[in-house]
Fold this protein.
Amino acid sequence: MNEQQLYIPTHEITPQTMAVLPQRDKYGNTGSYVIEDQAEYFIKEPPSKVIDKACKFFGSSLRGRQEGTRAISELTHKAPISIDPASGMYFFPTSSPVNPKCSWIAHTHISKMYEAPNRCTQIVFKNGKSITLDVSLGSMENQVNRTAQFRYMLENRINSLMNQHRASIFKLKK
């Protein structure tokens, strides 16, 4: 953590959140380095706990969101989640969420990805910020594609329900 990074005790994930990365504090405890469109923070909680709290803020839990993903898409490992589909907050883990090295990346903020040295991946976000993760480009591309597929499937379900609701209201008005 450098001098310009802020430490805050708690933080809510928002549509401006681009990544939640594991980072050790000066005592060796795993916390989270949160990158947003216009700010960066350090939080004492590990990334999966930050994501779990965000899910709970929107009425579920990380486990509940993972089970929902599984029910919709049959994805079981490193499953992407929708923290809040209404605001487009879809995140995917870079490894198993129980792994202390797991990062969470916001699908909508990714602009490009490149292979980096030592089988790492550089992610360039839409605002120009970039990070390098110790994950292969192939694995990252797979996660991005799985998240896109899950997002498509969930949004189709939501739109179908909304269209059915509109049709039933239209019938009632006749």
